[in-house]
Structure formats: structure tokens, C-alpha cells
Amino acid sequence: MRKKIVTCKLLRRIRVTISAVILILSMGILTACSQAPESATIIAGSTSVQPYAEILAEEYMALNPEAVIDIQGGGSSAGITATQTHSANIGMSSRALKDDEKNLWNVEIAKDGLVLIVNPRNPIQNLTSDQIRDIYAATITDWSQLGGTKSKINIIAREEGSGTRSAFTELIMGEEEITPKAIVQDSNGAVRQLVADDPNAIGFISLGLVTDEVKALHLDSIEATRENIMNGSYRLSRQFLFVTDGEPIGLDKKFIDFTLSSEGQRLLINEGLIPSEEGAEK
């Protein structure tokens, strides 16, 4: 009888211990879940903004080791949609918001120039806005029509939904359509690589991504430089935006504040971007 009483007591103690462990684990899980929005965030969208966001995130996480910032591409439209559907915390856009997107909170993190690039072996150094429009509409199809050597122009463009393409269409093409014969690429890096490999190619990319592999053309006899973008003489420029569904809070706000801080803006300037007006005021 005594042995049964001892056994019952032991079982009760085991049950109490197990219950306590479960409670502690549950509290730990709840605590971790409640902390997740503070310690991790997903940023998605423009492949033009992506490399700069990665630099910012790397620096922020070095200063704040508890933070986890996941940077993903997909294009401006995809980033804005991801923000609207809450599959990303912050969207990146290299185009202005459309009317049905203007309910989203947004901030300009920097300005960027768009540059027409050719292979360094191409003798052309300057094109007018009208000539570029005619090239991309396939009205001009041979470099000899522009004073170059006789060879077919291979047109490289970005994909539909790209902020880079939207900005180029708005600032250069106007009512004209980019020819369907253009070779479409899904990132500025891919456009740059094709132009670097093809003496007859032309493409457009972010000013901050120009390297010695390609040659940046002057537009209407104006060189693409930060100074010329800031003084308005070089007109092919656009905004880089961060977008959120509502006023940013927690880590989202901290990271955006860091981006707009003097330190964040210095990082972007070092990469060839022009500081935002919002950042300049801080």
C-alpha cells in the first residue's frame, strides 16, 4: 500500500514538472514570436535599389547584431505588391507610385541617374534624346545612321514592371513603345554584362552601376554626373523609394531612419547616388 502511495506521489511530481517545462517553453515561444517583428524584416522590390539596400543592411546589422534584414529583388511592381499583401515589410521602388499605390507610406532614400551605355569599342560618345527614342522604337536600326560603323544596333532593355524601364519610358520614350525586338533582361547587372560583351549593343542602367566594362554616353551633350543631375542639366534621373503599408514601426522604422541618417546617406553617396532631400534635412 505504501509503495502505491509513493508511486502516486512520484507520478504527480513528474506531471507537475512536465507541466512546468511546457509552460516555460510556451512562454519562450510566445516571447520569441513577440520579438520577431523587432529583430527581423523582409525588404523586397527594385533590383536597381537592391544592391544599395544590401550595403545599408550589411552596415546596419554590423552595428546591431540582433537584427536580421533579408533583402530580395523581384522588381519595383513586385516589391510594392509584396508590401500591400504583407509578404514584405518594406518595398523598394525605382519608379514613382501609381495613383492606386499612393495610399502607401513612402520616402525617397536617394536619387539616381539613368545612363545609356555602349561597349567601349563603340566610337559613339553622345546621343540626343530623339536619337535614343528612335533607337528604342526601332526607327534607327544601324550605327551608321548615327555616325558610327555600319552594323545593326542590338537593343537591350529591362523587363515590364521594372522601375528602370518605367523611368526610361516616361523620361525618353513618351508615347512611343519600346520595340518588341529588344532583348529583355531582368536586372541592371545583366544589361551591363550584355553590353560589355557586344560591340553593337546599347542599354540603360543606373549611374551608380556604371563600370569600366561599358561606356556611359552623354545625353544631349551633357555628361551623366552627380553634379549635373543635382543642377538639373542632366535630366535622366529618378527617385529611389522605400514603401510600407502604413507608418513604419519597430525595426522597419529604425532601418529607414538609419538609411536617411548622415551615415546611411554617406554610404549611398559613396556608391554614386545623390542624397535624398529627406536625408539632407536630417
From TrEMBL:
<protein>
    <recommendedName>
        <fullName>Phosphate-binding protein</fullName>
    </recommendedName>
</protein>
<dbReference type="InterPro" id="IPR011862">
    <property type="entry name" value="Phos-bd"/>
</dbReference>
<comment type="function">
    <text>Part of the ABC transporter complex PstSACB involved in phosphate import.</text>
</comment>
<feature type="domain" description="PBP">
    <location>
        <begin position="41"/>
        <end position="263"/>
    </location>
</feature>
<dbReference type="GO" id="GO:0005886">
    <property type="term" value="C:plasma membrane"/>
</dbReference>
<keyword id="KW-0813">Transport</keyword>
<dbReference type="GO" id="GO:0006817">
    <property type="term" value="P:phosphate ion transport"/>
</dbReference>
<dbReference type="InterPro" id="IPR050811">
    <property type="entry name" value="Phosphate_ABC_transporter"/>
</dbReference>
<comment type="subunit">
    <text>The complex is composed of two ATP-binding proteins (PstB), two transmembrane proteins (PstC and PstA) and a solute-binding protein (PstS).</text>
</comment>
<comment type="similarity">
    <text>Belongs to the PstS family.</text>
</comment>
<keyword id="KW-1003">Cell membrane</keyword>
<dbReference type="InterPro" id="IPR024370">
    <property type="entry name" value="PBP_domain"/>
</dbReference>
<comment type="function">
    <text>Involved in the system for phosphate transport across the cytoplasmic membrane.</text>
</comment>
<dbReference type="Pfam" id="PF12849">
    <property type="entry name" value="PBP_like_2"/>
</dbReference>
<dbReference type="GO" id="GO:0042301">
    <property type="term" value="F:phosphate ion binding"/>
</dbReference>
<keyword id="KW-0592">Phosphate transport</keyword>
<keyword id="KW-0732">Signal</keyword>
<keyword id="KW-0449">Lipoprotein</keyword>
<keyword id="KW-0564">Palmitate</keyword>
<keyword id="KW-0472">Membrane</keyword>
